[in-house]
Design brief:
single chain, mainly beta, 5-stranded antiparallel β-sheet, globular
């Protein structure tokens, strides 16, 4: 089973409550405002700020 794209309508960044972008190839949800990337593990997004990866300025988000 793959990540359900329909979830994108209700998911939000846990920090700023903003929109998340789905990066299928990296299996991540990215908040462009906070520059945080949340992993998707076994088709479940891990929306914990403590588990998020900082997106560097060099990365194209």
């Amino acid at each position: 089973m793959a990540f359900d794209i329909k979830l994108m309508e209700i998911l939000a960044c846990p920090v700023c409550k903003g929109k998340l972008d789905y990066k299928k190839d990296q299996k991540e949800l990215v908040c462009n405002f906070d520059r945080l990337a949340y992993a998707i593990v076994e088709d479940i997004p891990v929306l914990l700020e403590s588990e998020a990866r900082r997106v560097s300025e060099d990365e194209n988000v």
